[in-house]
Amino acid sequence: MHLEPPQGSKIAISEEGLERVIKFHPKSEEVMKFVIGFVFLLILGGVLLAIYEDFEKMLSGKGDGFVLIQAFARLIFGLCVGYFIFVVFRPFSPETLRLGADSIYYDSGFPPFHLELDFEDPKGSWRPMLPKRTWVKLERPVLQTLALREFHSGNRLTVDMNAQRINIGVTATEVEREWLYEVLSKTYG
Questions:
Q1: For residue 98, which of 102, 105, 134, 140 is within the disulfide window of CB 3.0 to 4.6 Å?
Q2: Of the candidates 103, 189, 94, which has an alpha carbon nearest to the alpha carbon of residue 147?
Q3: Local structure of residue 47 (DSSP, 8 states)
Q4: Three-state DSSP class for 97?
Q5: CA distances in angstroms from 131 to 68, 86, 108, 134, listed in the order given
Q6: How much is the pLDDT for 125?
Q7: What is the Cα–Cα distance from 102 to 141, expressed in whole angstroms?
Q8: Which ranges constitute the DSSP H helices of 61-138?
Q9: What is the pTM of this model?
């Protein structure tokens, strides 16, 4: 089967042994990533300076239990800020599909950092900022649940694996997801 991605897409197709590999390269990184990262680096610097001052007070004998609790709370906050800085500057890895004879190995990769504020659903705003990587083997029975679903925000390509719904092509455009649905339906349908 000949795979030809849509014109102008950032999909890369290669062959590795007997498998075809489809990689979705997301759009370029935003400038906002660097602004947010710089602000959090400044916050982390302030937190580390405050922790240093707290420990200096305790070592000089001027600190009490409150200073110890305050230093511990700042340390926890500093670890959270440090993790967020890691997430912001973490290099992305593309979303990958390895097409085998009877199955697909799916790796969700790590998309580049993207800030999307949604004031109606604040909890939902954090999910794209802190993505989880998914590695699964999608067998032919699971691939029978492949569906291109339409939502008010666009389409989603999904498969149902046990009680879990897996979105495929998250970093792809709508046209690229439609193309992928057609390719996977013809290959595994």
A1: 105
A2: 189
A3: H
A4: strand
A5: 34, 12, 9, 9
A6: 59
A7: 10
A8: 65-89, 122-129
A9: 0.72
Locate 128 and state its tokens.
């794209």
**Structure tokens given for 161:** 């694996």
State both tokens at 134: 């998914």
pLDDT in tens, the chain (189 residues): 557 888 888 888 888 888 889 898 876 667 778 888 999 999 999 999 999 999 999 889 887 889 889 999 999 999 999 998 988 888 888 889 998 888 899 998 887 776 666 667 666 656 666 667 888 998 888 888 988 888 887 888 889 988 888 888 888 888 888 999 988 888 887
Residue 167 has φ and ψ, to the nearest 5°, of -85, 130
Cβ count within 10 A of residue 97: 22
Contact between 140 and 102 under an 8 Å Cβ cutoff? The reply is: yes
Backbone phi, psi, residue 69, to 5°: -65, -40
How many Cα atoms occupy the beta-carbon half-sphere of 185 within 13 Å?
A: 11
- In the DSSP assignment, the letter for residue 92 is P
CA nearest 23: which of 87, 91, 90, 93?
93
Whether the CB-CB separation of 137 and 105 falls below 8 Å is answered with: yes
